[in-house]
Design brief:
Distance between the termini: 27 Å
Order of helices and strands: EEEEEH
Number of domains: 1
Structural class: alpha+beta
Number of strands: 5
Oligomer: single chain
Largest sheet: 5 strands, antiparallel
Strand content: 35-45%
Length: about 80
């Protein structure tokens, strides 16, 4: 099973690299697969690669789903 995690690009660090933030975690992301990455873009990241740019409404929906998963995960780990 593949899993892509939503990130927001917070810095462009090279012609094919950026820093992405997911929650409080910041990672270097390869941007080879998306056209003209820019700071503030919402992207799905899999295996260190931004594989898809999300529209703002899509990004909000995916972030809400991830927050729900995180909240459930924290609750389940304390039971």
């Amino acid at each position: 099973m593949c899993l892509a995690i939503p990130h927001t690009l917070i810095a462009i660090t090279g012609p094919k690299t950026a820093i992405g933030r997911a929650g409080t975690v910041e990672v270097e992301v390869r941007t080879d697969l998306i056209d003209t990455p820019a700071m503030g873009d919402h992207v799905l990241v899999h295996a260190g690669f931004a594989i898809e740019r999300l529209l703002p409404d899509e990004a909000a929906e995916v972030e809400a789903l991830w927050e729900s998963i995180r909240a459930h995960s924290v609750t389940a780990s304390h039971e």
